[in-house]
Structure formats: structure tokens, C-alpha cells
Specification:
Helix content is 58%, strand content 13%. It is an alpha+beta fold. It has a 5-stranded antiparallel sheet, covered by helices on one side. Strands 8, 9, 16, 17 and 18 form a 5-stranded antiparallel sheet that branches. The radius of gyration is 35 Å and the shape is elongated.
Length: 780
């Protein structure tokens, strides 16, 4: 450009500078701004391998970075994996040791310990090989499946080995024929019982959605291990018995443990058989009482996994400037790192330059990494730490959301779009109306006991500069709408005028008004459109509009999120639903509907699946038992082991205060199969004893007495194998413990059922005309 023969430079009428693009976010590290990045793993990838690869690449890049620049991870999932795997490895080691000790204690035949123990590592190895063949991985849930199966994996070997030792001790010259006869006697029922355990675990495979993805690795690992153990118990174990079973064979009553147990068991069994009605009535009362005990223990979708980190996600009012949000975020991070239990705190506001994280500027996401619990103050717990943090954060006005786990938060946001375990969604076609009713719902939810971090999405209230062109004024001055839009876009939004080349970098050149002019509505009115001020051809005003517009199933959506403290999530969600149904739903205008999401939705889905599948599986097991025994009474007799096993599991669950969850139900499902298995084997012993002839009552006593040692060994083994899980407090134990508790309690109560109630029922249904000496038996 020239004026009066003189060149007019760009700097003469514009400010030329290197500036940033529109800011959409910021990252704060302990009060100072830093640059951050996120590593996104492809679907189906191995997280640990990806993290190790990223660390290797960072180490490779570090020497080439400018002086003083370092790359430091602030959320590293590999530490969680390592701690969880360490917990499970420790638990598995302790389980194997306790299992070996239980065998030594009851059998007192040291060579036979190898027979019972060797199938254990072989079954576990076979399980991992099968997992690899089917594309599975060794993770928290698959190892958890192995951990809860340890005791059951050796159950078949225990029954087989104990029967061989007993038959050898009863024979003057034990040999191959004696071992073969003993193996044949229990081989079929052992294989059948293992099949029952596998069949009972079908409901876990039927789970879908998030709960299915969580528990399918567990179910696969346990199933593969059980299949291997079943095959080994009828192949390898008898072969090892031939090689390793040698005299002397101590009689059962020479073992000090068995002498003590028999001294108690014999009179108890005699009394129970003489008072059959009383025993059966007591069993029914115990079952009914256990149901009453667990009626109010509460429920949740899944026990939270303690990752060693916390996620804090507050949201500010719409329109809050990035500078103000960044200032508060820096203050919050300094508050967090002031706690001696906190290693570091990194806050992110807004979103990165990606479409996968459409967070508004007003939303903060702070990751708080905690030190190991051994470095915490004396008496400090996670709950106390969160309470102290919340108290300090209340110095800033506004809603303080609840703290959640990072992985939990990611899963919730990806699956529901809501950053809390409970979400209430309002659907409609008018954002103003949805916002009004959402704020009313927020106040109602706040009044529910246990509610914390309750916040409705603020979709309205963001300031906008609204420019409405006057078409008549445009026509009078001969202007086109496109010309007006070009001026507005260039002046306010900015237009890319070209690209500057700096080496290999390509930097866009952007033209727009300076910030002061963009923010001054009077200066905007003075913008010229072909020598006509914009204020003369358009209405320019500041208005409030939506901060964000979300939709679901083709309808506008506004949500309310809520965390819970001091009570179980299930009963909290039920109270919220009851309150909103009673006080809000009747007043909602036509066209606005209400729905729930989050853990409550997942929990309801899992409960519906289990309520449908579990009865079907029990029916199939009943039909299978009926086919084997050729008797409805016999099949029902064996299946009665399930409710009595439930009694012990329910009592222990109530005593430890563990709410119902998908993990607890998986524990009960594992218990179903084991309880039926032990009942099947007891009936085999009773049938064998009755088949020899003689007095029915005495035959029942003799058969039950023979089952005492293998049954006590089985229960002791299963309980001992799960005790390390029960007393563990390390990372990952939160998921394993709810699975182990029903099995431990149920096995203890099933011990009483199998040893007392089952013989009583067996005698009850066979006395008088019901007795049929030609009844089908497994060994026949």
C-alpha cells in the first residue's frame, strides 16, 4: 500500500506480534503452570506394555530436551498394576502354604501331600496357557479368579487321595487293585461334582456391559483352572497314588485332629438322627434368620478399587474467565500438596486440543497422587483425609464435589457422561425449563442423607455478544448479508490471512481486532461495513445463553450428579429415586422425562441379569441331578445344600458389614457350585454304606462318619486358601474380599449342613416305605 508516494506498512495501522491461539485449557502443577499431554491407548492394547513403551520413549527423548525441561508423569497406572499384582502374588503364595499345611494336618501322610499339591500349580499353569490361547491377559480379575479357586482346585484330589488312603488302611495287603477300586469309587462323583461347579458359574459369563467386562476374565481363569483340575483329579492323581501311596497307613482314628473331631461328631450325629424334625426346623430357622440379617446391609455396583490416587472435579459458574479458574485451580493444588499424605497434585482446566475431551473452561480435573499408606500420619485414613481436604476447600464459595478414583471417573464419564456414581437426567425440548427443574431436583437430592457433591449442570448463564442484522437497513444501503458476516468474523473471531514459514514449522497468520476493541460493545458498533457503521445496520447487545448443549436419544438433556458418603450407594440411590418420584415427578410438565444413570444403572442391569440367569442354572442343575439319581427327592435333597450355604455367607457378610455388589454375587455363585459338589460326594458315601445292607440308621451313621475327614479337609482347605484374601488390606483386596466372604461363611455353614442335615434328610426320605435298596448309586 502507498499514500502520497510513501509506503504504508502493516505496523503503521496494526499491531503485529507472536501470540497464542484461543485458549481452551491450562495445566497446573503444584501452583505453577506447565505443559501436559495425555497418552491414549488403542482399544484392546496391553496397558502395562504401552506404559513401559512410553517410558522408554521419554527416556530416549529426555537428553534432547532444552536445559531445565523435564517430562514427569503425574498419573501412572503401572504403579497400580504392580501393587495389585504384588497383593495377589502374596495372597496366592500364602494360600498354597496354608493348603499344604491343612493336608499335612489331616492326612499325616507326607508323600500324599505331593499328590494333592502337585495338581495345584499344574492347573494354574494350564489356566494361564488357555487364557493366552484365547487372547486373555494376566490382570487383577483373572488372578482374582485363580485366588478364589485355589481351595476348590484341590478338592477332587483331596477326595480321591483320602479315599485311597482310607481303603489302603482298611486292607491287609494294599496294592494296585485296592487303589484302582478306591479311585473308581469316587472318580465318577468327583468328575460330576466338578462339572456342577463349572455349570454353576455360567451366570458370570451371562453378565454383560461393564460388569461383564470386569468379571469375564475372572470367570475364564477360574473355569480353565477348574477344567484342568477336574481332568487331573481323575488322571494324574490316581497315577500318583499308585506311585506314592506306600505304608505305613495310619488309621483315621489315630490322627489326633480326627480323634477330637470324631469325639464331637459321633454324639452330635446320633442326637440329630433321633431328633430329625428339630434339626430340620433349626436349619430352616437359620436360613430365614440369615435372610433377615442381610436384608439391610445395603448395596453398591462394585467396591471401589483404592488406586492410591484421587480425582477432584469441580465446575464453576458459566462465563467464569479462564484466568479466574486458573487462579482458583492453582490455589486448590497448593492446598492439596500441603497435606503430608499427598505426593503431588496436578490440575487441568478446560480441554486439550482434541475433540475427545469436550470439557468447558469452567471444569477442573485435579489428579491427586497419594504417598504409600506407611508414610501417612498416625491414625489417618482415606476417609479422614478426604474430610480434611473438603473442609479446607470450603473456603472458596461453591459446591464441593465428592472425590472419586481416577479409573472410576473415566469409566463413568465414558459410559454415562456424568462424573459421579449417581446421575439423574432430565430430558425435554426447552433448555430453560430443563434448567429450572434440574435446580429443583438438586435441592431435593441434597436433602437425602449421605448426599455430597450434588450439582446440576448449569447450561444457562454464559454471556454472549449477539449481533442481529437488520435486513431492511441492509437493503436500503445496498449491502449483502455475507459482507456483514465477513466483517464480524474477521473483527471478532479472526480470519486466517496466510501462513508464515519458519523452517519446518508452518504458523498461521491471523487478522482480528485487538482485545480491548472486541470487548467494547461501542467499538463493535463502530465497525465499518463498506463505510456504514455496523451499529446502523444491526442490533448489538449482550445476552445470556447456553453454556453447553447436550443431547441423548435425540432430546436435550440436563443432568444432576451426586456422590455418597457414610452409607452404601444402593440404598442412597433408592432414597433419591423415592424422593424424586414423590416430590418432583408429579410436578414435571408434559414433555419432560426423568431417568437415572451411573453405578445405579449398572447395578440394576447386573441384578436383572443375575435374577434371570441364576434360577435357570439352578433348574438345569436340578434336572441334571434328577437324571443322575433318577429321583426328584434325591435331587432336591442335594440342592438343599445351596440355601444352607447361603446362610453362612449371609451371616459373615452381615458381620463384616459388606454391602451387596456384583462381586458379592459372584462369590455366592462360586459358593453354589462348591456346596452342591460337597453334597454330591456325601450322598455317594451314604449310598455306598446303605448298599452294603444292614440297619438303615447304622448305615447312614457309618457313611456320614466316612465323609467326616474329606469334608473337613475340603472346608479347611477352601477357608484356609481364602483367609489371606480376607485379612489383606493391600491394593486389589477391595475387589477380592467381597468375593471371598460369601465363600468362607458359606463353606463353614455347609460343613454343618453336609455333616448333620444331609444324613438326617437322607435317613428321613429312606426310612419305611421310602427306602429302596436298589436305588441308583454313582459307584454302581
Amino acid at each position: 500500500m502507498e499514500k502520497n508516494g510513501m509506503p504504508v506498512l502493516l505496523k503503521d495501522f496494526a499491531r503485529v506480534e507472536i501470540g497464542g491461539d484461543f485458549r481452551r485449557g491450562a495445566l497446573d502443577f503444584a501452583g505453577g503452570e506447565v505443559v501436559g499431554g495425555i497418552v491414549v491407548m488403542r482399544s484392546g492394547g496391553n496397558a502395562l506394555s504401552v506404559i513401559e513403551g512410553v517410558k522408554a520413549k521419554i527416556a530416549q527423548l529426555q537428553p534432547s530436551l532444552p536445559a531445565g525441561v523435564v517430562i514427569r508423569p503425574f498419573y501412572d497406572r503401572s504403579t497400580l498394576f504392580e501393587r495389585s499384582m504384588g497383593t495377589l502374588r502374596t495372597a496366592l503364595t500364602e494360600e498354597i502354604i496354608l493348603v499344604i499345611l491343612a493336608h499335612i494336618l489331616f492326612l499325616w501322610h507326607f508323600r500324599s501331600v505331593w499328590i494333592v499339591t502337585l495338581p495345584l500349580p499344574v492347573s494354574i499353569l494350564a489356566s494361564f496357557l488357555a487364557l493366552k490361547a484365547f487372547g486373555g491377559t494376566s490382570n487383577i480379575m483373572s488372578l482374582c479368579g485363580i485366588a478364589i479357586a485355589i481351595g476348590v482346585l484341590v478338592d477332587g484330589a483331596i477326595v480321591m487321595t483320602e479315599n485311597v488312603l482310607r481303603r489302603c488302611s482298611e486292607t491287609e495287603k494294599p496294592g494296585f487293585d485296592t487303589i484302582l477300586a478306591a479311585a473308581r469309587q469316587v472318580g465318577r462323583p468327583v468328575a460330576f461334582a466338578m462339572a456342577i461347579i463349572l455349570l454353576a458359574f455360567v451366570p458370570v459369563f451371562a453378565l454383560s456391559g461393564q460388569e461383564g467386562r470386569l468379571f469375564h476374565p475372572l470367570a475364564l481363569a477360574k473355569t480353565f483352572a477348574m477344567l484342568a483340575a477336574a481332568v487331573l483329579s481323575i488322571t494324574l492323581v490316581p497315577a500318583m497314588c499308585v506311585l506314592l501311596v506306600r505304608g505305613p497307613f495310619p488309621a483315621e482314628n489315630r490322627n489326633f485332629v480326627m480323634r477330637a473331631l470324631l469325639r464331637i461328631y459321633d454324639p452330635v450325629l446320633d442326637w440329630s438322627l433321633r431328633h430329625a424334625k428339630t434339626v430340620l426346623g433349626l436349619a430352616a430357622m437359620i436360613f430365614a434368620g440369615s435372610l433377615l440379617l442381610v436384608k439391610n446391609v445395603g448395596s453398591q455396583f462394585m467396591p471401589p478399587l483404592n488406586e492410591g490416587s484421587l480425582l477432584f472435579m469441580p465446575t464453576f459458574a458459566p462465563g467464569t474467565s479462564l484466568t479466574e479458574v486458573k487462579r482458583v485451580m492453582a490455589w486448590q493444588d497448593q492446598v492439596f500438596v500441603s497435606f503430608p499424605e499427598v505426593e503431588l497434585a496436578v490440575g487441568k482446566l478446560g480441554r486439550a486440543e482434541t475433540a475427545t475431551d469436550p470439557a468447558p473452561v469452567e471444569m477442573i480435573e485435579t489428579t491427586i497422587t497419594l504417598k504409600p499408606a506407611s508414610e501417612w500420619r498416625a491414625g489417618m485414613t482415606r476417609e479422614k483425609l478426604i474430610a480434611e481436604m473438603t473442609a479446607k476447600l470450603q473456603q472458596v464459595p461453591g459446591s464441593i464435589p465428592g472425590f472419586i478414583q481416577p479409573i472410576e471417573g473415566r469409566v463413568l464419564m465414558l459410559s454415562t457422561g456424568i462424573r459421579a456414581p449417581l446421575g439423574i437426567k432430565l430430558f425435554g425440548d426447552d433448555l430453560d425449563a430443563l434448567q429450572k427443574w434440574a435446580l429443583e431436583a438438586e435441592q431435593l437430592v441434597r436433602s437425602v442423607p449421605g448426599a455430597t457433591g450434588v450439582a446440576a449442570t448449569r447450561v444457562q448463564g454464559r454471556p454472549y455478544l449477539q449481533i442481529t442484522p437488520d435486513r431492511d437497513a441492509l437493503a436500503q444501503r445496498g449491502l449483502r448479508m455475507a459482507e456483514v458476516m465477513d466483517v464480524i468474523e474477521t473483527g471478532l473471531g479472526g480470519t486466517e490471512a496466510g501462513v508464515a514459514v519458519q523452517g519446518r514449522a508452518r504458523v498461521p497468520i491471523q487478522v482480528r481486532l485487538q482485545r480491548g476493541e472486541r470487548d467494547d460493545i461501542e467499538r463493535v458498533r463502530d465497525l465499518m461495513v463498506k463505510n456504514v457503521p455496523l451499529g446502523q445496520i444491526a442490533k448489538i447487545e449482550r445476552v445470556e445463553g447456553p453454556n453447553e448443549i447436550t443431547s441423548e436419544d435425540g432430546r436435550l438433556r440436563v443432568s444432576i450428579q451426586a456422590n455418597v458418603e457414610g452409607r452404601d450407594a444402593g440404598s442412597f440411590a433408592e432414597d433419591v429415586s423415592e424422593k424424586l418420584t414423590r416430590e418432583l415427578l408429579p410436578r414435571l410438565p408434559a414433555g419432560i422425562t426423568l431417568a437415572y444413570s451411573g453405578d445405579h444403572e449398572q447395578q440394576a442391569h447386573a441384578r436383572h441379569t443375575l435374577m434371570l440367569i441364576v434360577p435357570c442354572v439352578l433348574l438345569v442343575i436340578f434336572l441334571l441331578l434328577n437324571q443322575v439319581y433318577r429321583s426328584v427327592r434325591e435331587a432336591a435333597h442335594v440342592l438343599l445344600a445351596v440355601p444352607f450355604a447361603l446362610s453362612g455367607g449371609a451371616v459373615l457378610q452381615w458381620a463384616l458389614g459388606i454391602p451387596f455388589s456384583v462381586a458379592v454375587w459372584v462369590g455366592y455363585i462360586a459358593l453354589f457350585g462348591t456346596a452342591i459338589q460337597t453334597a454330591v460326594v456325601m450322598v455317594v458315601y451314604l449310598e455306598e454304606s446303605v448298599a452294603r445292607g444292614g440297619d438303615l440308621l447304622q448305615a447312614v451313621k457309618d457313611g456320614a462318619r466316612l465323609r467326616l475327614r474329606p469334608k473337613v479337609m475340603t472346608v479347611a482347605t477352601i477357608v484356609a486358601s481364602l483367609l489371606p484374601v480376607l485379612w489383606s488390606t493391600q491394593t486389589g483386596s477391595e475387589v477380592m474380599k467381597p468375593i471371598a466372604v460369601p465363600v468362607i461363611g458359606g463353606m463353614i455353614s455347609s460343613l454343618l449342613h453336609i455333616l448333620i442335615v444331609t444324613p438326617v434328610l437322607f435317613w428321613w426320605v429312606r426310612r419305611g416305605p421310602l427306602h429302596n435298596p436298589d436305588k441308583f448309586a454313582f459307584g454302581g
